[in-house]
Amino acid sequence: MTHYNSRAQVRNLLVIAGLSSALLLTSCTGSSDAGDISGDTLEAASTLTAFPPEISIAQALRVQECVRAAGLNMPFDSDAAQSTPLSYGLSNLFTSADEAKRTGYATTISDGKNVVSEWEESLTESDRQKYYSALFGPDGSEQIEVSLDNGMKLSTSKVGCIAEAQTELYGSVESALAFTGLVNEYLTTAGDAGNERDAQVSALAPDYEKCMDAKGYTVDDFDVPALAEELFGAYRAPGEQPGKDEQDLAVADFDCQAEVNLRDTVAAAFAAESADWLKANEGRLLAMQEELRLVQERAVDIING
């Protein structure tokens, strides 16, 4: 049984989506045929793996605001803002052209990469403890804990900047942790799909690159965030919408992802190894999909100020 302590997981816990990569355990895969899973269930599962980027960005914004209110000049965490549950290395898997235009790429946000880690290292010991207390509340603060079907326990503080951001987005810390647990369970059952999934995604890359080239962009594999950083630099403030050129790139990215069927390919690879779990958890998945839609709406409101 594994138990995660919040204070030891500062970097992973700054964004609830980022938990999943840290919590992925040895797989216990399903054996049934994914073909008899309902389309609604497959779509809900796909939503869990194509996490709406606005949620990560909004939580990073709220955490930054809260820590600054505590008297520490925390920069915007662009690494956390592009953190997702995706285990196949894609942080820009858009679900629509509108979403692509709204969010763009965290690599163009002005505070840049690794800036929070560097800032944290620069703090005095006193300020570092002040930072941790702002994030999680003082030592001894009330914790919430949930146990997953795979035996893992997840816990996090019910107070502090992260808890406040989660409550604003999800309605409660309990709801945020429940979502994290559901994603973890799903990715755990799909763990053995990794090699096949990576092979299928890699096979799509040449056609994707051709599609992007036809739209005027030279991209390596699916790494458009790196291209955005190269083309535009870190030019926009946290919460500021992408400029037109970045929006055009993001829409082209979405269009080419759709052309090569990237999202469905990834979702199908996950589902093929998780059929038993998907069928057993259909109700939970459908309910969580609707909740995630509401969380995304709240996130967009936060970003738009």
Strand neighbour order, sheet with most strands: 1-2
Give the overall pLDDT as a whole number: 80
Strand fraction band? under 5%
What fraction, in percent, of the residue positions are helical? Answer: 55-70%
User: Uncertain spans, ≥5 residues at pLDDT below 50?
Assistant: 1-32, 85-89
Briefly note the structural class of the backbone.
Answer: mainly alpha
Domain count: the total is: 1
Number of strand segments? 2
Overall shape: it is: globular
Radius of gyration: 19 Å
Distance between the termini: 42 Å
Separate helix tally:
16
Largest sheet: 2 strands, antiparallel
Pattern of helices and strands: HHHHHHHHEEHHHHHHHH
3D architecture notes:
- It is globular and about 55 Å long.
- A two-stranded antiparallel sheet has the order 1-2.
- Mean pLDDT is 80; it is low at 1-32 and 85-89.
- It has 305 residues and is mainly alpha-helical.
- It is built from 16 helices and two strands.
- The longest helix has 23 residues, at 282-304.
- Helix 3 (39-49) crosses helix 14 (262-272), helix 4 packs across helix 9 (161-170) and helix 4 (53-69) crosses helix 16.
